[in-house]
Amino acid sequence: MAFIRWKKNSAGNLQAYLIQSYRDEAGKPKHKMLAYLGDAASLTPEHVAALNAKYPDIKIDWEKVKPVQRPRTDISKLNDAELLKKIRHLRYEMGLNQNQMVWALEKSGMPKCTSESWKGAWVSGRRWGVIEKALENGEPQDFYENPEIDIAPALRKAFLSQSSSDH
Fold first, then answer.
1. Is the pTM of this model over 0.70?
2. 3-class secondary structure for 47-91?
3. How far apart are CA 107 and CA 9, in angstroms?
């Protein structure tokens, strides 16, 4: 029988694979990857037809093979400090790399750096990694005076707008 397996890639994004369960000659249970499905939350009829054509000898009950919806963090239950601690996780959920995250946050109202040493500078992807790590660990960072004021509102707006565009 076939099923969908979701695995995280090196960037932390979930990706789907179509897996077949079978038993080898010794009777041990084994799994074989039949197809990479990407990060799509559903199988299109065209994709199902192509997989059926590719694996005609394998019985797949397509009614039982349903991709599991990727869980989404409910940010309405998080205060700003908790939200900032989950910033990397939220970026992964949004499927963004560091540069895309910075762009999404700037588009959602995040200002340029507000600290004395970086005041007025744009954040690059490399700097963003430093900021994310510090925020996750509850450590100070040198780019924003008050991340709860400067970053958290933009993060909420970006996450919610991205979530609503997914539906």
1. no
2. HHHHHHHHCCCCCCCCCCCCCCCCCCCCHHHCCHHHHHHCHHHHH
3. 27
